[in-house]
């Protein structure tokens, strides 16, 4: 709960949160802006003692996302760790 409050305070929209996965909305229009925002927020959050051991790994970046639940979502993939060298499309 404290981590989610901190992320919301820093301007992120929390779409989904569990112990294994965190989906956030940066409200940025370009991949570079979103990447810089996430980098700044992760560095800021991890600088606090209570969150120092929390590990954040970006898995997939969407330019738009339609979210129903953790097993039912789709969007336009901008970047994916699994398909870094491939042309990304719709999931």
Write a structural description.
With 91 residues, the chain is α+β, with helices and mostly antiparallel strands. It is 26% helix and 31% strand. The protein has 2 helices and 4 strands. The chain has helices spanning 2-9, 31-46; strands at residues 13-17, 22-25, 60-69, 72-80. The strands form 2 sheets. A two-stranded antiparallel ribbon has the order 1-2. A two-stranded antiparallel ribbon has the order 3-4. Strand 3 (60-69) and strand 4 (72-80) form a beta hairpin. The longest helix has 16 residues, at 31-46.
Supply the key terms:
two-stranded antiparallel sheet, 91 residues
Termini separation comes to 30 Å
Rounded mean pLDDT score: 87
Question: Could you tell me the radius of gyration in angstroms?
Answer: 13 Å
Percent of residues in helices = 25-40%
Widest β-sheet, arrangement of strands: 1-2
Q: Which structural class fits the helix and strand makeup?
A: alpha+beta
Question: How many H/I helices?
Answer: 2
